[in-house]
Amino acid sequence: MEKTLKVINRMEADGVIGRYAIGGAVAAIFYIEPFTTYDLDNLVVLTPIYEYLARKGYEAEGEAVNVEGWPVQFLPAYNPLVAEALKQAVEIKFKRTPTRVMSAEHLVAIMLQTGRTKDYARAAKFLEEDVVDVERLEDILSRHELSGKWREFSRRFKP
To answer: Is 141:159 a contact under the CB 8 Å cutoff?
Structure first.
């Protein structure tokens, strides 16, 4: 994954993509025990990404592009919650490569917004592992009108 992140950082430096952050299941591994995923989700404001990567020799595989052995999906910041998560992403290093990952609180908020059973189970794992600042999460949920989802989740999973 480090080689993949270096390519993505180069894309950002070259102006092909704007600010990015790792989301989804790969982001979760920075906080909790990993669960199965097949790709690296990057949330970005879309630009001519596929053409850039094709010029560099990377090939599309369905909705992803294989970058140094990792299928990478480039997703738009499709709603205000995701846009905020992207803007407030946490700066980290993966081995020696700088990158950004969505905060645990934003990941859980997005999971609750999505509302699938597997997302609720993942959100429960975040709370179980005590990697979430619940006060900050509740603030995010309130601002994005997701307090009802939090109540529903709390009834089902009792964090």
So the answer is: no
Type of residue numbered 87: K
How far apart (Å, rounded) are the C-alpha atoms in residues 41 and 76?
10
In angstroms, what CA-CA distances link 36 with 26, 42, 117? 9, 17, 15
Residues of each domain in the chain carrying CATH 3.30.460.40: 2-79+89-102
pLDDT confidence of residue 135: 98
Q: How confident is the model at residue 45, as a pLDDT?
A: 47
Going through the chain in order, the beta strands assigned E by DSSP cover: 21-23, 40-44, 60-61, 64-67, 70-76, 90-94, 97-101
Rounded distance, CA 145 to CA 3, Å?
Answer: 38
CATH 3.30.1330.10 fits 2-79+89-102, yes or no: no
pTM to 2 decimals?
A: 0.82
Residue-level pLDDT at 86:
96
Report CA torsion sign: 33, 102, 1, 76.
positive
